[in-house]
Amino acid sequence: MCEVIVKRITQKYEVKISNFNISNVEYMNDMFRECTNLASIDVSNFNTSKILEMDDMFRSCSTLTSLDLSSFNTSNVFDMNEMFKDCTSLMTLDISSFNTEKVTDMKQMFENCTSMQEIKVGSGWVISEGTDTTNMFTNCGVQENELTHVTI
Q1: Contact 76/103 with Cβ under 8 angstroms?
Q2: Who contacts 75 (Cβ-Cβ below 8 Å, separation ≥6)?
């Protein structure tokens, strides 16, 4: 059973997803892509342990200001291409639980996140040799050497 509640807030929308079972899902490509009026979203109950691809997942969610993905299990993900690209209002991002050991594509992951002030990463944030990081931080308010490392 999936219960989705969309609440209109002065032309922006907040999405609350409860009892959303994605435990057998492998591909989350484009899931929220171009949700330009999405102001906030709670994905804290998502079981992402089987996800393989997250490319373009939040791309062009231009009204999101913060996103907490600290509960995401990304140990099987290999594609994060353009995951947050063009999230122009996104100021804070918590990806401290991300394990990027298997990720081979991080192209343009944070490109055009012009309002970004902080990206929290944990010990699992590893960019392996051979991972494509082309334009990963192009036109982003935070650069790779400015990531906030947190202890999990």
Answers
A1: no
A2: 49, 99, 101, 102, 124
> CA 114 to CA 13: how far, in whole Å?
21
Six-digit token pair at 113? 């996140």
- Give yes or no for a contact between 54 and 80, defined as CB atoms under 8 angstroms apart: yes
Q: What is the pTM of this model?
A: 0.87
Shortest CA distance to 77 belongs to which of 126, 41, 145? Answer: 126
Instruction: Write the DSSP assignment of 66-123 as a string of letters.
Output: EEE-TT---TT--B-TTSSTT-TT--EEEETT---TT--B-TTTTTT-TT--EEEE-T
**74 vs 52: CA distance, rounded Å:** 8
Structure tokens at 49: 């342990």
pLDDT tens digits, 20-77 = 889 999 999 999 999 998 888 888 889 999 999 999 999 999 999 888 898 999 999 9
